[in-house]
Specification:
The complex is a heterodimer of chains A (370) and B (322). By secondary structure, chain A is an alpha+beta fold. Chain A is built from eleven helices and eight strands. In chain A, strands 1-8-4-5 form a four-stranded antiparallel β-sheet, with no helix packed on it. Chain A has a two-stranded parallel ribbon with strand order 2-7. A two-stranded antiparallel ribbon of chain A has the order 3-6. Chain A is elongated, with a radius of gyration of 29 Å. Chain B is α/β, with parallel strands linked by helices and 322 residues long. In chain B, the strands form three sheets. In chain B, strands 5-6-7-3-8-9 form a six-stranded mixed β-sheet, sandwiched between helices. Chain B has a five-stranded mixed β-sheet with strand order 13-10-12-11-14. In chain B, strands 2-1-4 form a three-stranded antiparallel β-sheet, covered by helices on one side. In chain B, strand 8 and strand 9 form a beta hairpin. Classes of the chains: A alpha+beta (370), B alpha/beta (322). Chains A and B meet through helix 2 and helix 5 of A and strand 5, helix 3 and helix 4 of B.
């Protein structure tokens, strides 16, 4: 660094030749945004690769065990008759990997909200807290363009990363579903399964980032943004969850049944069985109940029914007993397993819609930040 | 983002002032930070903005830089709104706390300036940084306050603005660097015809540098104008006066400030004709005038936005002889 050129006046007003033109793939606000988020991007990338590697490892080990022990169709949820001999092997698998599956599942569920809390919430809030927003907004680019890069870079990175995670995670959930006594992973519709597989992974991740960034823009304090984002994430996730069957209305199955009140003679031997409504296996049952001849619905607490020796059902509730003579059918409303992907795409669609609204909100809000 | 030519700024000669506010007011939650500001900074001036802490200096600059939106009134920079794309290219604003991205290196900070500004002068920016001996690969967050000031100045000067607003820019640099940086500022201003608005506490460092000055007090403009005009229109009068209130001999002049030390009274005034010969009249320095205004509380009545006369008992101050 010589000092001889210090004294000389600037040679000309022509700009310096673009340094290493080949390296300047990123330009302007995008370059700045990538540079500012370099550390989070690297950390998230490493975490993503580590998680994928772990999922592949764990899933492969479990798959190998299932194959070598020939328990493909036998798991802890569903036991057809041919699985009688292999019960111990299925349970052995459960106890061997249960803890790891549990931890991994919770980690997968926590990833999108964590992204929102610890990467997205400080994204804009830190700019306000340290005053660097004033630096950016007094350069030659508009606030909107700056915001576009500030949100665009993390959103695109999240899109790419979560797509990779979604593929690996969906495969892994398929490997472990029903094989472990982890409550959320029993069925395709239980909440750990539905939050960590399919396009929902992408939807929840993008939603987390957009929500965190929007909160940061409004709250303008890092810690407060994280707290508010946490609360709002919980609310929004519950709302998205509640709308997951928006596009797939429940189906109904009915079957004839005869009911009787609990007989005075308790010596009778009862047997128990499912309601005769033949819902497909692995259906998400919404409601079970009985129908009277005049169309009244009498919900039942479960789909197990005690029966008298002649097959007549025994009313488990007072309401049922009151109408026992007019009950003609049993019904079940349910979502068939075929609804799984429609459910995922609905969740994803709602998430993406909320994400788009949040981005629009940011673009509107940044105009009126003073 | 590098344009083949630095975008030539079409500056209609002598048309729009660099900065003009009309009835400008800005209200934070409860209180007014600025109220009724009528301020006109002609292009090409080096202007000083002085006033006590909380007077509204930073707020005025932030409004002009488009960071804050006025509650009432209007502000125009070269005739345009502060947030218009054409305007933000022409202004540069260095905040008092000199925000910089702490994790970027010095070289990256300058690259950020280059990426975001079409008229960027890497030459200018690098010269300022190099003068301070800053290693280009040092992280901005590890620099001293003075070194950060240098990087921040490199950023605003590299932008090649037409209006440069500096809020207490040299408060934390050492005297040698202060002189050097002031020299660079003035050279840039002279070479490119940059208008500079600079706020400072150090009145002495404004002397001989500025040709325009504004005193802000309690969100209102006490006095504003060219330095020469201020020097011409003010006088210091020293005399003996036993009284309590305003000396009768001076009653017809606009007295900015009256100070008494025992029997001797010193008045800063705007003469409305010849001053009584019993008073010893001299031409004040810029510092005398500024201090005179700064020490005197603004008159209670609203809208002291008109530069000039402050009279009445409010302007009288007793100075205890220590």
């Amino acid at each position: 660094m010589s000092t001889t050129d210090l004294a000389s006046p600037p040679p000309s007003l022509s700009p310096p030749p673009p340094p290493a033109a080949g390296r300047r793939i990123l330009r302007g606000t995008v370059w700045l945004s990538v540079r500012q988020e370099r550390t989070p991007l690297l950390v998230c990338g490493v975490v993503l690769l580590a998680v994928c590697a772990w999922l592949l490892f764990l899933g492969t080990r479990i798959g190998d065990y299932v194959d070598t022990q020939h328990i493909q169709n036998c798991n802890v949820v569903h036991f057809p008759a041919e699985c009688e001999q292999v019960t111990s092997r299925a349970i052995e698998l459960d106890t061997r990997w249960l803890t790891w599956v549990l931890i991994t599942g919770w980690f997968l569920v926590a990833l999108p909200p964590a992204l929102g809390l610890f990467v997205a919430a400080p994204l804009l809030a830190r700019e306000f807290e340290s005053g660097t927003y004033g630096l950016a907004w007094t350069q030659s680019v508009s606030r909107q363009r700056w915001l576009a890069a500030r949100l665009g870079v993390p959103l695109v990175a999240t899109l790419v990363g979560s797509c990779l995670l979604a593929v690996v995670s969906t495969w892994w959930v398929g490997q472990i579903q029903g094989r472990f006594a982890v409550p959320g992973y029993y069925h395709w519709f239980t909440w750990l399964s539905r939050a960590t597989s399919g396009p929902s992974v992408v939807g929840f991740s993008l939603l987390g980032v957009a929500l965190g960034a929007a909160v940061g823009l409004v709250v303008r304090r890092v810690v407060a943004s994280i707290v508010v984002t946490a609360a709002l994430t919980a609310v929004v996730r519950v709302a998205v969850d509640a709308s997951r069957y928006l596009l797939t209305p429940t189906r109904e199955a009915v079957a004839d049944i005869r009911m009787a009140a609990l007989p005075a003679d308790h010596q009778l031997v009862f047997s128990s069985s499912h309601l005769p409504t033949s819902t497909p296996i692995e259906s998400d049952i919404v409601e079970n109940g009985l129908l009277t001849s005049d169309g009244q619905r009498i919900p039942l607490p479960g789909d197990w029914l005690s029966r008298m020796p002649d097959g007549t059902g025994v009313c488990p509730t007072d309401e049922c007993s009151a109408h026992q003579d007019t009950i003609v059918q049993a019904y079940a409303t349910y979502h068939p397993p075929a609804a799984e992907w429609a459910m995922h795409w609905t969740q994803t669609g709602v998430c993406l819609a909320v994400t788009a609204l949040l981005v629009l909100f940011c673009a509107f809000w940044i105009r009126r930040v003073r | 983002m590098n344009h083949p030519e630095p975008a030539p700024h079409h500056r209609p000669a002598g048309q729009s002032p660099a900065l003009e506010t009309v009835g400008l007011g800005l209200k934070y939650r409860r209180s007014w930070a600025l109220r009724g500001c009528e301020f006109r900074l002609p292009a090409g001036r080096i202007s000083a903005l002085v006033g006590p802490n909380g007077a509204g200096k930073s707020t005025l600059m932030a409004v002009a830089a488009g960071l804050l939106a006025p509650t009432e009134g209007s502000v125009a920079v070269f005739g345009g709104g502060p947030r218009e794309p054409g305007t933000i290219r022409r202004t540069a604003y260095l905040r008092q706390d000199k925000p910089l991205y702490p994790r970027l290196t010095v070289a990256e900070a300058l690259r950020a300036g280059r990426e975001l500004n079409p008229g960027w002068s890497q030459e200018t920016a690098e010269r300022i940084v190099r003068h301070g001996g800053l290693p280009p690969d040092a992280r901005v967050g590890t620099l001293t306050a003075g070194q950060r000031t240098r990087v921040a100045l490199a950023l605003v000067l590299g932008k090649r603005p037409d209006l440069l607003m500096l809020d207490e820019p040299l408060a934390d640099v050492d005297p040698v660097a202060r002189q050097e940086l002031t020299g660079i500022l003035m050279a840039e201003a002279a070479e490119h015809g940059t208008t500079i608005l600079i706020s400072s506490h150090v009145l002495a460092e404004l002397n001989g540098v500025c040709d325009h000055v504004t005193v802000l007090q309690d969100g209102r403009i006490r006095v504003t104008g060219d330095v020469e005009d201020l020097l011409d229109s003010h006088r210091l009068a020293v005399g003996v006066d036993e009284g309590d209130g305003l000396p009768a001999d001076l009653a017809r002049h606009d007295i900015v400030e009256l100070r008494r030390t025992g029997r001797q009274a010193t008045a800063l005034l705007k003469p409305a004709g010849p001053v009584d010969p019993r008073w010893d009249v001299s031409r004040p320095g810029l510092e005398d005038i500024l201090i005179g205004y700064l020490r005197t509380p603004a008159p209670g009545a609203p809208a002291a936005s008109v530069p000039g006369p402050v009279a009445g008992p409010a302007a009288v101050r007793e100075v205890s002889a220590r």
